[in-house]
Amino acid sequence: MLSASSRKTRNEPDIAAQDTNLTPTRTCDAGLTGVDNPRSVTLAPRHRRPTYIAETLDALLEPYPEVTQTESGAVCGGWSASAGEDGTVHVDGRGAAVDGLRALARVAWTTQDKRGSLDPAQVAGALGTLATAGLRI
């Protein structure tokens, strides 16, 4: 997976300088190609969150589905994600599992920002659901 965190690992000084300068044209991509994984994407700190999440780098050339924030969480494609009172994130739906990851990431990041942290156990069940649906974990 190519993501903001993998870019920092590969080219730390350049990316750090861009982050410091808040370059508005820079976006971060997350392709699930093995450098990162769905767990690291959902638990990413604010400065390492990808703008786009895709299963392969080729998918970054295709139209990107909208991730919509809802009152109870987020939806993308046929998937919805929400967080419980304790911060545990849940997903439900069908269709492309990567759409579920996109919804999950949005809710996980919102939850992490509100609570100050998010434990890996709080996303484990949702990631298990997506793995069952075919997402490579």
Task: Give an overview of the whole structure.
The protein has 137 residues and is of the alpha+beta class. The chain has one domain. Helices cover 39% and strands 16% of the residues. The protein contains four helices and six strands. It has helices at 4-21, 38-42, 97-115, 121-132; strands at 29-31, 52-54, 68-69, 73-76, 79-83, 89-93. The strands form two sheets. A four-stranded antiparallel beta sheet has the order 3-4-5-6. A two-stranded parallel ribbon has the order 1-2. Helix 3 (97-115) runs antiparallel to helix 4. The termini are close together.
SSE blueprint:
Elements: H1 4-21, E1 29-31, H2 38-42, E2 52-54, E3 68-69, E4 73-76, E5 79-83, E6 89-93, H3 97-115, H4 121-132
Parallel strand pairs: 1-2
Antiparallel strand pairs: 3-4, 4-5, 5-6
Helix pairs in contact: 3-4
Features:
137 residues, alpha+beta, 6 strands, globular, disordered N terminus
Percent range of helical residues: 25-40%
The rounded distance between the terminal residues' Cα atoms is: 11 Å
- Based on secondary structure, the structural category is alpha+beta
How many domains?
1
Order of strands side by side in the largest beta sheet?
3-4-5-6
Radius of gyration: 14 Å
| Largest sheet: number of strands, sense, barrel closure | 4 strands, antiparallel
Number of DSSP E strands: 6
**% residues in beta strands:** 15-25%
Low-confidence stretches: 1-27
Overall shape: it is globular
- Element pattern in H and E: HEHEEEEEHH
Q: What is the typical, i.e. mean, pLDDT?
A: 81
Count of alpha and pi helical runs: 4
